[in-house]
Write a structure and sequence with these properties.
Strand 8 and strand 9 form a beta hairpin. Strands 5-6-7-8-9-10 form a 6-stranded antiparallel beta sheet, with no helix packed on it. A 4-stranded antiparallel beta sheet has the order 1-2-3-4, with no helix packed on it. By secondary structure, it is mainly β. The two termini are 19 Å apart. It is globular and about 60 Å long.
Amino acid sequence: MNYLENDIFTPDISTDKTPTVYPCVKTEKSKYKVIEAVTEQTSRAIAFANEINENVIGDFERETDKMCHVSTFCFADNNIFVSYYANGYSNEENPDFQSARISFAPMNDIKNKTVLDVQCVGDVISGHTIKKVYDTILLQRDDDKDNIYVLFTALVDDQYYRLYRIFNIKTTKYSTAYRHCIAPNRGSYESRPTRF
């Protein structure tokens, strides 16, 4: 990977330290309780399924989407905001053809939606090509109510990154793009702005 002067991507940080490898061990007792899935159709399960089917809020996908997955949503400024990844080429979940998206609509007019691409396979950021797009996460900070953070995982050149873009709900525009790196062996957390 070649790096530019103001690149949001950085080379791997090498170290002379010997990595610590912990062996796999069987846990005898856990503080967590495993809950088995209930498969029988109890009256509560049927009521829950009926409530979901009868109270659909809206359809936030693009009409040309053939597969959408991993949606998250939030309510802000009298709008519903939804993030997801989509495949517009086939109905399969295939990161080679996926786009990260944000969709939003007024709470009282769900059919009046706007769908925007956050990042698509083939896009170039600072000279680096997005080769695959995976899961999206949408979040809003309590101290930053005018912005929504749309996070997604991408294969950039030959390395995976968790990236995010900030979407301003007042202007309905993306602001400066940032990298949020949580990949292993990538050094310490670092974020640097760049322009798309």
